[in-house]
Amino acid sequence: MSAGSPQEVPVDVLPPLPKDAHATSPATQTEGPPPPFAGLRTFYHPASGVVILGLDWLAFGSDIMTGFLALPLLCVLAFAISFPVIYVIQLKWSKDTIGPALGKAFLGAFLVGLPFPITGTLLGAAILALAGLPHHPVDAVKKLTSRGTTK
Questions:
Q1: What's the predicted TM-score (pTM) here?
Q2: Of the residues 40, 67, 102, 121, which has the fewest C-beta atoms closer than 10 A?
């Protein structure tokens, strides 16, 4: 055989990929487990609802600080703590874009910073509904700790 003549090269043909192969291919998988409640579509992620109601209850559910400047300081502190936590939850777990995540974080932090507990009010009920949380605290904890994404 001469060096200039073309040679036949065997071609290996692979079977077609199944339709769901893109979801399971290593190139498209994200690192780590999926975020909690990945399939749930609510305004707030359930973890954001728990953060809003939990931090509000911690800040204003009991008399942590008393005094003339304590209440304004506590309002600002509650806002400052809850804003980044809610923002990260909405951005990472709820897969919101930056704009909606900032808006939801601001609204949630504003509600946490109100100078009274919202847990037993209409605002607290709205947070429960917007986050898809059950009205009973034990059911909420069970729902958050379960691995399923049931609605």
A1: 0.65
A2: 67
